[in-house]
UniProtKB/TrEMBL annotation:
ABC transporter domain boundaries: 2-247
PROSITE patterns reported for this sequence: ABC_TRANSPORTER_2
Protein name: Cysteine desulfurase
Name of the gene encoding the protein in the UniProt record: sufC
Protein species of origin: Sphingobium chungbukense
Entry similarity comment: Belongs to the ABC transporter superfamily. Ycf16 family.
Gene Ontology molecular-function annotations: ATP binding; ATP hydrolysis activity
Keywords: ATP-binding, Nucleotide-binding
Length: 253
């Protein structure tokens, strides 16, 4: 589904990713862990097409298409979803309005008919129910006045409605208490743990992986993947830290 080969990039001329390679197949959940400044969020933003993240080398293909040849909205319509560490507020625009316009824009790009108002509300109720989010919350402006947990749950509702092929979730567990973490984890599993979908989880900690079991865990340090393994690798990192894997000098940096 997603193949990254020797990817390098730069922000304001500074190299961040330095030869990163990764392959994700349909039906798989991959977790990326690593110390601060390793390039985890940079990888997510680069794949999503955020401005300012310049690709300087390497390739990335998504379902056989050159990902970097697509504009951000084209990547989304092709089935790529990017979940943010800090979801933004959009005053004056209700969640329902935002979600319906987003979904129908993507359907139009794929040559599909838009959903009617009734069809959309039915879908929104179903996905909000998965995340324990009251429909009244979806009538409010996007993320305005929401707690950290509510923002993350609303974002997972968005993911459910858009129904992506690949979800890249950047520190979705950030700011969540134990109850919210369980709900969000269950939502990710219900929406994305399917044979034709895949997930790339970016996280600092093991705790999210207690609820969303990864097939593979990768350690990202100094702009490249330095170690890969199964779920047990996350437990090792939680227990022993990153120093033994990536070198004490890299963690200190």
């Amino acid at each position: 589904m997603l193949t990254i080969d020797n990817l390098t990039n730069a922000i304001d001329g500074k190299a961040i990713l330095k030869g990163l390679s990764l392959s994700i197949k349909a039906g798989e959940i991959h977790a990326i862990m690593g110390p601060n400044g390793a390039g985890k969020s940079t990888l997510a933003y680069t794949l999503g097409g955020r401005p300012g993240y310049e690709v300087t080398g390497g390739e990335a293909s998504f379902n056989g298409v050159n990902l970097f040849s697509l504009e951000p909205h084209e990547r989304a319509a092709a089935g790529l979803f990017l979940g943010f560490q800090y979801p933004v507020e959009i005053p004056g625009v209700s969640n329902l309005q935002f979600l319906r316009e987003s979904l129908n824009s993507q359907r139009k790009a794929r040559g599909e008919e838009p959903l009617s108002g009734g069809e959309f509300i039915k879908l929104a109720k179903e996905k909000a129910g998965l995340l324990g989010l009251d429909m009244e919350m979806l009538k409010r402006p996007v993320n305005v006045g929401f707690s950290g947990g509510e923002k993350k749950r609303a974002e997972m509702v968005q993911m459910g409605i858009l129904d992506p092929r690949l979800a890249i979730l950047d520190e979705t567990d950030s700011g969540l208490d134990i109850d919210a973490l369980k709900i969000v984890g269950a939502g990710i599993n219900a929406i994305m743990r399917k044979p034709d979908k895949a997930v790339l989880l970016i996280t600092h900690y093991q705790r999210l992986l207690d609820y969303v079991k990864p097939d593979f865990v990768h350690v990202l340090a100094a702009g490249r993947i330095v170690k890969s393994g199964g779920p047990e690798l996350a437990l090792e990192l939680e227990r022993e830290g990153y120093a033994d894997v990536v070198g004490a000098e890299v963690v200190a940096a």
